[in-house]
Structure formats: structure tokens, C-alpha cells
Write a structure and sequence with these properties.
heterodimer; A: alpha/beta; Rossmann fold; six-stranded mixed sheet; four-stranded antiparallel sheet; 10 strands; about 30% helix; about 30% strand; B: alpha+beta
């Protein structure tokens, strides 16, 4: 169980806007989104295609910057950080899980998992030790020396979750984590997220599937770049 | 089908503009370099090819060995031609070619011209060589004494609109010649050049020269050319010729312990294969033709490698097209032909760009190569050569990509299993490594050549070569007028000192049989000797290590000798002062005594080791050396010219040159080689960089998702740049390990020809390695930075 010594609010966004250039003009993706996510939250961001949910996830993950508005992560404003400062935040505070797994094909599972630790400059022995722990936690330690193309979709996503976990981030962001998996494997992956949340991890996942969202304890529903609904799941 | 293939090609060409530009530009630079070097090499190989009988014409040259030393001479004694003709039936004709020792003053009416290309030749010259006459009869033009055939250019200059035939010109105001023919100007690519061909019989008729009747005369004043009868092998004649000197000079050769071997030089070999003593002019060297050709091939290969690399890297982009064509029944060979055809078209587009580049660069290239090169599209060789090279380039560059592309299996590519050219990545790396090895060899070559050149230019020669003017005294009258001239010019502070000599540093010295004390006649060596007046040592700034130089105060100095340190060492003299020399063949001449020892100095260029050298006293040398004040060089030269005009009104133009500039010319071949290497290095690196740029852009495209992932898990910009450069850096290191020993071996071989040379240090290789790394990082850096600063969200979005 992870215990926080900080304030319960981990993410605070206020009047977030994001637009993309298109021809001569700009297309708005987010139009004034405000929300707070606390430590230990388990949030599903839902919405139709084009509603702005992936854009919101990218901004929350410091992969992209808002056009306007305020974003504070763990009490620190991250909207105006330099590239390298953002890289530091991603490395230390955020773990990503993608729909397409995004494992590096030329590396085996162990090397993929230890990648975040590599960029922390951690000693290789400790890096390997902790990576194996993370892989054990998601049940793929026996695939450590296999390359992504030698594993099933479920195994690849477990490796991706291990990679997200290994750096002990403050928050795990998952973008359609079951989108490329069959329903049975998808349920296994969601069970892992459930367990991780019960252990104290803050998880935000983007999904458009109701049965996936039902694993969470809160739903934020976006429509046309604004929050249409923000409610707990009972 | 061909229209469809062409349409697809044009669409790809326009859609991938950057990639197409890199391919075309790389090939164009390679082709342009190749064409320029080809022009140079063709010019070198074309020397003396215009003579119709070139395959039967030979120059007879002589190798003589005495005292363990062999000298090879381009000139032969004057009687050899007629005597050989009489004794050997294989010889159809001979002609002798006697250049002036100095230049002649040609006069017609009031006009006067200094002329160096006034040659005496036997009347058979027109039968042997192809020298077309515009006017006059070649059969009779030079049969009589005092007749001359003039080149068209000189005829126009001297006679203007008058008909020159039958006109009389004066030579040195003494000898009169009647113009009996006008010849076309001799081509530049000829190992000899003449503006005036005068009848050989004039020499004897004017008392300029006695025609010897036996070969006992050993003068070396002229060149002898033979034309062998058809059907006779020159090797057989050469074998027989080896007995010729023994038969005629056997006794004397035995006495002198000498061996003389004549041999035949094919006319067309002289320019590139002959570097003998007393050549008509400095010839070129076949080694440089090989080196330049290698550089051209190297550069074209580097350009082809670029093409192969980029094409195979991008092959996956065309995998679907290949799959569909195969499904439709196109055979592999047809596909291969299509892709090779595309690269041939690329190659021809590159040729067009290359021709523009060549036309822009050619004037500058001609200047530094010292040739008048031109793109003569009407010549028989240029267009076929261009077409052949371009076609070969297209086939070589496109061969491997065509093999790769045509090998794709339709099921694999259409189901999307085949990914971007992964199987070829090792081959691509090997090609890049080859490019780097080539670049490293070129860089090391350039650095070593330039360092050696710098070393030769700056090495202390043992005398002060700066501010010395060398002036030719054209005749005896000028030599006799020298003391008065000296007195006049020394009144000016701009003239520091002057002397006369028979030779100056960098020019040929005579060798004499002078018997040093302690030697018997039979052991007397041939010693390089020059004769100078007073003040030579002082004018040249040569150090005297013991004794003194020639002095006006000592009457016996007419029979004094100065020796250099090497001579003293060679003769085993610890204290050379007072030692005696005697002329071996002139026993009546009084013995000469050593009065001073000179510190060794480089009398020849640094291509030759310092040899023993004697300086004997004689004021009749036909060359004047003048040291001017470094403060007022231009004024000093002006004074010399003014005083010259006043002292020698018959020779109004003072023929002079600066000694340091003349010595500099001794290194012209190395300078030219250095320039070719600099240009070759810059261009090969440029081509390689173009390839790297294309590959880096391709890699950035291919790895965009990977970079996105790495950035998502915390990689910084510098982490990504490092990742990007790492692959190329590894290849450079491999290329470095391969390139260093190869370049060391090649350049060590080149340096081996120099008796005075630099030592190749590790610094050269470290510099080369760092330069290669820096160039690579800068080239790859742009794309690495671009990739590193890409928004990871964009990268991860691009599925």
C-alpha cells in the first residue's frame, strides 16, 4: 500500500484549452476543461472519438502542452516547463500504458522495462533487479528475454504495464489499454490495474468501452472538448 | 508497360523531392569530379599521339654507370644518329633535335624577338614526325644550310601580312636564315615544341659546331630519334644496341671503369615514363595518372554507394508496388530492369547537372592543372566516354537496390509483414563504413601531402633562397661585360651582392672527373661541380665551416676549390684545407687546392640527397645571381633592368627569375597532387555527407515512434541526440580502425620516394578521426535535433 505524505490533490487542471492548426485556422480539441484528481483515484476518461480525451491524456502526461489554462502536478505548475524539465517529470512521476503497447521491437522485454531507469542513470544491476520485480508483479518475468514479436498481445501489454510501474510513478496514465486485446485478455489487464489501484497507485485511463470504465471509481466524460459529466461510479 | 514505369518513376521523383535531390546531387558531384579528372588523364595520355608513325618512332637514350653511380641521359652524342643508321639496317630514318643552349635573338627588319624554341633538326624531321607544312616542301625545306621553317603563329607575328617564303631572318644578328616553309603550330600535348626548325647542316656550315664523324665525341648536346622499319621488333634492335658503345668506345670505357647502355624509348612513353637528365622539359609521371584515376573511381564509387544506401533504405516504400506488379505476373528480371532503368535515368539527370558543374569549374581546374582543358564534344572520345561512364554508374548504383526490390515476396509485402528494409541494414552499414574508410584515406592523404609539401617549402636549405634574382647572360659579350655591370649596380643600396656561376640551386650541375688527393686515376669519381666567380658563397648565404671563400686578395685563387661537408666526408678528409684536386684528362692543368669547406646545402630539390659538391673558380659562368635588399625588392629589380638595358643594348630584355619561385616549381607535382587531394577530399566528404543526411532523415522517419516512446519514459533531448549519433559513431570507429592501416601503408609508400620527409605521427590519425566524427555529428545532428525536439505526442499518434 502506497502512503502519501502530500496533499490529496495530485492533478489540478483549470480552464485547459488546446487547439491544433488546420489549414489557415485552428481546430479546438479542449475548450476550458477543469478537474482535480486526487492520490489513489481510479479515473476513466470517456468520450466519443474526437471528444478530446487523448489530447487531455497527452497534456496530463506532459507529452503535450496546453494552448491555455493551468496544469499543476503534485502542486507544481507544469504548463511552462522546458523540454528537459518535462522529460524529468515524465521519468519520475508518470507511467504510460498505450493501446499499441509501444515496446521497442529490437529490445527484449527486460530491456524495455528498464528503459525509464536507464534515463535516471541508475546502476545496471539495480535496474535489472527492479525491472524483474516489476515484471513479476504483472506475471511476465518468464518472458524477460523475449522480444515483443515473440509474445502475445496480453504479454506485451503486461510488459508495458511493468515499464510504467518500474519507476514508481505518482500516476499511471493508460490510453485505451485493452483496445488491441481480446475481451478475455482485456479483463486480465484490467484486473492488474484494479490490483495496482488497490495498492495505492493513482490511475487515469482513457477508454470508450463502458465495461472497462466500470472497473474505475470515477468517470470523466468529455464531449466536444468540454467535460460533460464528472461523477463517481458506485 | 514502359510508360507506366516511367510515370511511376516521375511520380516518385517529384513526390520525394529531397531524397531525389540528394541522389541526383551526389551522383552529379561524383560524375563531375570524374569528368574533370578524365579530361586531365586523357590529356596526359594524348601526348605525342598525333604522329602518324608514332608506333615506329623511338628516342635513343643512354644509361651510364661509373663508380657505382648510374646516370640516365635523354641526350646522346651527336654522331650516334648517322653511325647507328649506317650500322643497323633496322633503322629507316633518324633525326637529331638540337635545342639552343640559351635563347636566340630573332631579327627581321627592325623587329627583335627572344626565342627559346629555335631548334636545329635534320631534314628527315618531317618524314619521321607529323608536322604539316602550310607552305613549302617538306622534302627539301631543311636540306640546305641556313634554311628555316617557321610556325604559323611566329610567321604572322614577324612578317604580318607579307608572304614569309623566301624572306631572310637574322639570328643573334650574325646568322642569316631563309624561310623555306611554314608549319602548323605544334600541339600542346607534345613532349617537344618548336617555333623555328632550322636545318641541321647550318651548324657545321656556320662553324657553330663540327659534325663529328666517330662517336668518340661524348658531348651530350642533342636528342636522337629513330624510326624503325616496319616489321622489325624494337626489342631485337635494343639487344643489338647494347654492344654499340663497347664496339666503338671499349678501350676508353675500360680505362674509366664505365659502362654505357643505350636503350630505346617509345615516343609515346616519353611524357609519362621518362625522367632522365637533360630532358627537353620536365615530364609528367604515370604514377600521378594512376593516383588521379583512382581518386576519380573512388569518388564515383562513393556516389554510387550513396545511391545504393538511400534506395535500399527506402525500398520498403515501394514494396507494395512490387507486390502488386508480381501478383499481376511481372517477372523478377523485368522488375530488376525497371529499377536499374530508373537509376540509369537518375544517372543521366545527374550527368546534366554534372556538365553544368564541369563548365563552371573547368577554368579554375585548368589553371591549377597547368593545362588548357576543354570539353570538346566533337572529339571522338568524349561523348562515348560520358555515355559509358553514366551508364555504368547507373547500373552499378542501381544494381543492388534492383536486386533487393525485385526479391520481395508478394505475400509478405501485401500482408504488411515486410518492414522497412531491415534485412539490408547490415549491408547498408557496410556501405557507409566503406564511405568512411574512403573519406579517412582521403583525409590522411591530404594531411600527409600538405605536411610534406610544407616541410619541403620551409626546410632550411643551407642557403638563403629569398630575394635572389637569377639572370641569364646570353652571350660572351654579356659575360665579358659582367665586371662593369657589377660595379654599376653595386652603387645602389638595393643591390646587396652578385656573382656569376655556371649553375644555380635547383638546376642541373655538371659532373667532372676531378681526381681528389689520395685517389688514383682509375678510382676517380664523377663529382658534381659548378664554377663560380667571387662572392658566390656570400651572395647565396652559404656558411663556410672552415677556411674561406674565394678572395680577390689571393692571386692563386684562380686554382682554388671549395668543397661541401659531404665531399670532405666522402673523400675521408678530416682537415680538407690545402688538399689537392687534378683534372684527370687534362694533366697539364695546374693542380687546385681546397681553400674552404662549405656547410652542406641542398643544391638540388629535396627529392635528391645531398651529394659531394665542388665549387671551382671561374668568372665565365653564363648565369648571374644577384641578392637584392629585402626592404626594396621591386626597386632593386627595376635598377637591374635599367642597368641591363644600358649595358646590353643588343639584348634589351633581361631574362631573369626569382630563385625561391623557381625552387617552388620543383614541387609542382606535389602541389598538384595536394590540390587534387584537397578537392577530392572535400567532394568525397560532401558526397558522403549527402548520403548521411539522407540516411539520417530516413532513420529519423523510421524511428519516430521509438523516439516518442523513449521521450515518454523520460529521455531528454540530449539522450535522443546521443542515441541517434551512436549508430553512426560506431561505424566511424570501425572505418577508423580499417582506414588507418590502409592509409598508413599507402602514404608511407608515397613518402618513401622522398629522401627528406616527415614522419607520420599519431596526430595525423587522431586529427582525421576527430574530423570524421565532427563532420558526421554535424551532418546527423540536424536530423537528430529535429527528431529529439519532436513533440512525443505527435510521434506516438503517428500509427
Amino acid at each position: 500500500m502506497r502512503h502519501s505524505i502530500h496533499s490529496p490533490s495530485l492533478i489540478s487542471i483549470e480552464d485547459l484549452h488546446k487547439s491544433f492548426p488546420m489549414g489557415d485556422g485552428r481546430i479546438p480539441a479542449l475548450r476550458g476543461v477543469s478537474a482535480t484528481i486526487n492520490r489513489g483515484d481510479y479515473v476513466a476518461v470517456m468520450g466519443r472519438s474526437g471528444s478530446g480525451k487523448s489530447t487531455l491524456m497527452n497534456i496530463l502526461g506532459c507529452l503535450d502542452t496546453p494552448t491555455a489554462g493551468r496544469y499543476a502536478l503534485d502542486g507544481r505548475s507544469v504548463g511552462d516547463l522546458t523540454d528537459d524539465e518535462q522529460a524529468f517529470i515524465r521519468n519520475r512521476m508518470i507511467g504510460f500504458v498505450f493501446q499499441a503497447f509501444n515496446l521497442l521491437p529490437r529490445m527484449d522485454a527486460l530491456h524495455n522495462v528498464e528503459l525509464p531507469l536507464l534515463y535516471r542513470g541508475m546502476d545496471s544491476r539495480e535496474r535489472r533487479w527492479r525491472s524483474m520485480e516489476a515484471m513479476e508483479a504483472v506475471g511476465v518475468s518468464d518472458r524477460a528475454r523475449h522480444r515483443p514479436n515473440e509474445m502475445s498481445g496480453g504479454q506485451r501489454q503486461r510488459v508495458a504495464i511493468a515499464r510504467a510501474l518500474v519507476g514508481e510513478p505518482s500516476i499511471i496514465l493508460a490510453d485505451e489499454p485493452t483496445g488491441n486485446l481480446d475481451s478475455g485478455t482485456g479483463e486480465e489487464i484490467m484486473a492488474i490495474f484494479d490490483r495496482l489501484n488497490q495498492e495505492g497507485h493513482t490511475i487515469v485511463l482513457v477508454t470508450h468501452e463502458a465495461h472497462v470504465a466500470r472497473h474505475c471509481r470515477r468517470i470523466i466524460r468529455l464531449r466536444d472538448g468540454v467535460i460533460e459529466e464528472d461523477r463517481p461510479i458506485v | 508497360m514502359y510508360r507506366n514505369c516511367l510515370a511511376v518513376f516521375l511520380r516518385n521523383l517529384l513526390r520525394q523531392r529531397g531524397y531525389s535531390a540528394i541522389n541526383v546531387l551526389g551522383l552529379a558531384i561524383g560524375l563531375a569530379s570524374c569528368i574533370l579528372i578524365l579530361l586531365y588523364v586523357q590529356d596526359e595520355l594524348s601526348y605525342d599521339q598525333h604522329h602518324e608513325n608514332k608506333d615506329r618512332i623511338y628516342r635513343i637514350v643512354v644509361s651510364d654507370t661509373a663508380e657505382g653511380r648510374t646516370d640516365e641521359w635523354a641526350r646522346t652524342p651527336s654522331a650516334w644518329g648517322p653511325v647507328l643508321m649506317e650500322e643497323y639496317p633496322e633503322i629507316e630514318l633518324f633525326t637529331r633535335w638540337k635545342p639552343p643552349n640559351t635563347s636566340w635573338l630573332i631579327g627581321y627588319g627592325e623587329k627583335r624577338y627572344e626565342e627559346k624554341h629555335f631548334i636545329f633538326a635534320d631534314s628527315t624531321v618531317f618524314d619521321i614526325f607529323t608536322i604539316p607544312l602550310v607552305q613549302g616542301n617538306p622534302e627539301t625545306a631543311l636540306t640546305k644550310p641556313h634554311t628555316v621553317v617557321v610556325s604559323e603563329t611566329m610567321a604572322t607575328m614577324i612578317f604580318g601580312n607579307e608572304n614569309p617564303m623566301g624572306k631572310v631572318i637574322s639570328v643573334d644578328e650574325i646568322y642569316m636564315f631563309t624561310v623555306t616553309g611554314i608549319m602548323r603550330g605544334m600541339p600542346k600535348n607534345s613532349h617537344f615544341h618548336a617555333d623555328f626548325l632550322a636545318s641541321f647542316s647550318t651548324l657545321a656550315a656556320s662553324g657553330l659546331y663540327d659534325e663529328p664523324t666517330t662517336i668518340q665525341n661524348s658531348d651530350r648536346t642533342l636528342y636522337t630519334y629513330l624510326m624503325i622499319k616496319e616489321g622489325y621488333a624494337p626489342e631485337d634492335l635494343e639487344d643489338k644496341l647494347s654492344q654499340f658503345p663497347v664496339r666503338h668506345l671499349g678501350e676508353r670505357l675500360e680505362t674509366l671503369g664505365m659502362e654505357i647502355i643505350p636503350y630505346l624509348q617509345p615516343l609515346t612513353d616519353i611524357h609519362l615514363h621518362s625522367n632522365l637528365k637533360l630532358e627537353i622539359k620536365a615530364n609528367s609521371n604515370i604514377q600521378y595518372v594512376y593516383i588521379f584515376t583512382s581518386v576519380a573511381v573512388f569518388m564515383l564509387l562513393i556516389a554510387c554507394v550513396n545511391f545504393m544506401n538511400l534506395s535500399t533504405a527506402r525500398s520498403a516504400g515501394r514494396a507494395r508496388e512490387v507486390g502488386i506488379r508480381k501478383v499481376l505476373g511481372v517477372r523478377r528480371v523485368q522488375l530488376a530492369v525497371q529499377f536499374i532503368g530508373e537509376s540509369v535515368i537518375y544517372s543521366f539527370i545527374a550527368l546534366a547537372v554534372a556538365l553544368v558543374l564541369v563548365h563552371l569549374i573547368l577554368p579554375e581546374f585548368s589553371r591549377f592543372s597547368g593545362k588548357e582543358l576543354e570539353m570538346d564534344y566533337d572529339s571522338t572520345w568524349l561523348m562515348p566516354a560520358l555515355l559509358a561512364i553514366t551508364l555504368c554508374t547507373g547500373i552499378v548504383a542501381g544494381g543492388y537496390p534492383a536486386f533487393v526490390l525485385s526479391s520481395f515476396r508478394p505475400v509478405a509485402v501485401l500482408s504488411g509483414v515486410l518492414k522497412a528494409g531491415v534485412p539490408q541494414s547490415h549491408f547498408r552499414k557496410a556501405l557507409i563504413t566503406f564511405q568512411f574508410v574512403a573519406s579517412i584515406i582521403m583525409i590522411v592523404g591530404t594531411v600527409v601531402i600538405l605536411a610534406q609539401l610544407e616541410y619541403m617549402r620551409n626546410k632550411k636549405l643551407g642557403f638563403d633562397k629569398e630575394h635572389v634574382v637569377v639572370v641569364r647572360l646570353p652571350d660572351n659579350e654579356a659575360v665579358q661585360g659582367y665586371p662593369a655591370f657589377k660595379d654599376k649596380v653595386l652603387q645602389y643600396p638595393e643591390v646587396v651582392n652578385l656573382s656569376t656561376t655556371t649553375s644555380v640551386p635547383g638546376r642541373l650541375t655538371a659532373t667532372s672527373f676531378i681526381q681528389p688527393e689520395g685517389y688514383i686515376v682509375e678510382d676517380t669519381p664523377l663529382i658534381p661541380t659548378i664554377w663560380t666567380g667571387f662572392d658566390f658563397v656570400e651572395t647565396m648565404g652559404i656558411d663556410i665551416t672552415s677556411g674561406r671563400s674565394f678572395s680577390r686578395e689571393v692571386a692563386s685563387d684562380d686554382y682554388s676549390v671549395l668543397v661541401n661537408e659531404t665531399a670532405a666526408r666522402t673523400f675521408g678528409w678530416e682537415d680538407p684545407i690545402g688538399k689537392e684536386f687534378k683534372y684527370t684528362h687534362t694533366p697539364d692543368y695546374p693542380p687546385m687546392h681546397v681553400v674552404g669547406v662549405m656547410a652542406d646545402f641542398h643544391y638540388h630539390s629535396l627529392h635528391q640527397r645531398i651529394e659531394p659538391l665542388l665549387i671551382l673558380f671561374w668568372e665565365g659562368g653564363n648565369t648571374m645571381v644577384v641578392r637584392l635588399s629585402s626592404q626594396s625588392l621591386a626597386r632593386g629589380l627595376e635598377i637591374l633592368q635599367d642597368q641591363w638595358r644600358e649595358s646590353y643594348p643588343n639584348h634589351p630584355a633581361m631574362e631573369s627569375y626569382f630563385l625561391d619561385q623557381d625552387l617552388e616549381r620543383k614541387y609542382a607535382a606535389e602541389q598538384r597532387l595536394g590540390s587534387v587531394f584537397i578537392a577530392g577530399t572535400v567532394l568525397s566528404i560532401l558526397i558522403a555527407c549527402l548520403g548521411l543526411l539522407g540516411l539520417a532523415s530516413y532513420m529519423a522517419e523510421q524511428r519516430i515512434r521509438e523516439i516518442g516512446v523513449r521521450k515518454a519514459v523520460g529521455a531528454t533531448i540530449s539522450n535522443v541526440i546521443l542515441l541517434f549519433s551512436k549508430d553512426f559513431t560506431r561505424l566511424i570507429l570501425i572505418a577508423f580502425v580499417l582506414g588507418v592501416p590502409i592509409s598508413y601503408y599507402i602514404m608511407q609508400g608515397w613518402l618513401g620516394d622522398f629522401p627528406y620527409r616527415i614522419e607520420m605521427s599519431w596526430g595525423v590519425f587522431i586529427f582525421t578521426g576527430l574530423a570524421a566524427l565532427l563532420i558526421t555529428w554535424l551532418t546527423v545532428g540536424y536530423h537528430a535535433l529535429k527528431a529529439a525536439t519532436t513533440n512525443p505526442a505527435d510521434a506516438l499518434r503517428s500509427e
